[in-house]
Amino acid sequence: MREILRNMWRRKFRTFLTIFGIVIGMFAFTVMGSMALKFNKMIEGGKKYITGQITIMPKGTSFTGGGSNSMLPIDTLTEISKVEGVQAVGVGVELSLEEPNPDDPMGASMSFGTPPTIEGMDLNSNYENRNWKTMDMKEGKMIAKGDSDDKITVGYTIALDKNLKTGDKFKIRGREFEVAGVLDKTMTGPDSYVFMPITPARELLIASNPFLKSLKEQSDNAAKISDAALAAMPTATREQIISAKSFKVDDVTTMAGVSWKDGADSEVVSNRIKEQFKDQVLVLSPVKMGEQIDKASVMFNAIILGMALLALIVGSFSIINTMVMSISERTKEIGIKKALGASGWSIAREYTLEAGIIGLLGGAIGMGLGVLTAVLLNHKLAEKGAEIFLIQNNFLAGVIIFSFAIGIFAGIIPAMRAAKMKVVEAIREL
After folding, report:
1. How do residues 281-291 score in pLDDT, each as one tens digit?
2. Total structural domains in the chain?
3. pTM
4. Above 90 in pLDDT, residue 26?
5. Which stretch of DSSP H or E encloses residue 281?
6. CA 401, CA 399: separation in Å to the nearest integer?
7. DSSP class per residue in 116-164
8. What is the separation of C-alpha 332 from the centre of its chain, rounded to a whole number of angstroms?
9. Are residues 274 and 297 in the same domain?
10. What are the MacB-like periplasmic core domain coordinates in residue numbering (predicted)?
11. Is the pLDDT at 148 greater than 80, yes or no?
């Protein structure tokens, strides 16, 4: 080992340049890899949730976003609950935590991960996501049946960003709520959620949506008209008022999840719902949604890791070049060693190990710089709930092992060349 280090030091400038090439590659690999880990963690949580239910959405919308006026017909959801194999239908309302900033309309959509979101829950429903039945709490409790409408549970990132703890008051869109609990860190969507009872969520949505607000005002005004006054009105006017009266706050629903009975096949139940209500709602089966999520994950990982591996390939060729040049310069030395009885295997082992140490040093430095960069950026972005890197010990150990393996692999060809060198040819160089 001492001789290997001495040989590296004898050509320190070339060794430095080679190690520097590996540093760049492993830095990129560490940064990109930790970003991929974070993305995969988020995807894993989202997939776990979405594959634990049959998702029902308004017709004409998509899973990644829909129209602002899109509502689910409550009568249809009632009929869906009667489909064979369905255990329960859980209705909900989803909207952004804060009203859009007119000076920064793209602010929320440009964030990494799930933007701060209100999740209105029907606490009286028997619905239960089959994969996510409970959530770990950092403190307090999850809102449940019997809680008042002013109670909320906030995600880890929301609590961190707003400096909230159990018992604190939190004003949302001009309305004050009390924090009943804070979720433990999940590294996925719920970290950015505020869970509240569905009634206040509906009221907040109506207040922020001009179309729904207008319908509610018309309904409130129509409710003040007596039956006698209504009967005296012209037919056309009477029909408009009756239509306005039909609007109910309890009918405002933007999403729904369907759980299936024990022993039932989720795909069979999903297909039954599709066949019966394909003209009224959009039905997303858990299996097919899981497949779509997997495809997106594979593509993202391929892009990120492909960029990092490109840098590593460049570093590998740098090692090969350095070792080939080193062997050419040390032909006399190899000849003397062989003349003194050194075997080809010992020669090959020495040069392969030297290449491995170069890769190891470059990997350790590159990994250290990558971790430092990821930690600093995460710390900077943590206040906004936009951490984009995930550092895991097993990944870091893999980076070190991989960098050593890259060095060994890159050094094999030059080492074999040195091992096969003839003593007579080497002695001629003397």
Report:
1. 999 999 988 88
2. 2
3. 0.70
4. no
5. strand 281-284
6. 6
7. PEEEEE-TT-----SS-S---EEEE----TT--TTEEEE-HHHHHHHT-
8. 57
9. no
10. 15-205
11. yes
